């Protein structure tokens, strides 16, 4: 970058940048240690059926409990894990943990699908499909109870390869979803070709639903298109009852957001499950 700005640029040597580089290096070092020291935890955020009000699944979201810095959000360390390649063992661990947990809940009578995020680097791994198959076999989880989320941008980075990988994953029997839908650049034609089951409407559209009529129109259009393509829709970032009402009225199948619950530890999620099931009216 410094080079592009011309020869008299000493940007690289300013103390400020040196500090930034040092901080990144420190974070990288503690990221590696964190993995060994078991500082990562998988949280689960419920996904709720808009018709029955039932919890039908959850998204697995990684958390880092740093011994000194406290909770570090994934937005701060996932990109670094991605750059350093640590995302590969980390992503593998999240997948395994999430599958184990879903299988544990299944044995307790809760048939819930767990959604796990895949980053670009993970998606590009040559042995991705084999690794996932192995995790499913080892955890005994029904492949139908695993959902893999990739963002639109990851899907579009190499469409030909994406098609191959997604088809192979579909053959395993797992569900596939397009995350942060509406923020990337997938063309409508590629969307109809991709063997995905679900689109997740990005929370930026949901959160401005009332304030910006254009975003309301976009959400309506996505729901309409998804229905015609027979895709399942999850709306993320639902915080207000009015948002939920808007979505339910327009036949959005599933909602995920703080209105129902924040991401929870496995233990808290299980308590919520037991409470929520007890509160629901029994089927006749
Ligand atoms: P994402 O996959 O789009 O996940 C949804 C994010 O929205 C989560 O943020 C969740 O906590 C947040 N969220 C859910 N409901 C609401 C709401 O009502 N209001 C607001 N303001 N936010 C809500 P989180 O957990 O901080 O994760 C951020 C991103 O980090 C994720 O976005 C995903 O891209 C990435 N990420 C998280 N865990 C993993 C992981 O295990 N592997 C990979 N590769 N990426 C992950
Ligand atoms: Mg996601
Ligand atoms: Mg998302
Ligand atoms: Mg995201």
Automatic annotation (TrEMBL):
Protein origin, superkingdom: Bacteria
UniProt domain EAL: residue ranges: 24-277
Identification of the protein by name: Diguanylate cyclase (GGDEF) domain
Organism, scientific name: Chthonomonas calidirosea (strain DSM 23976 / ICMP 18418 / T49)
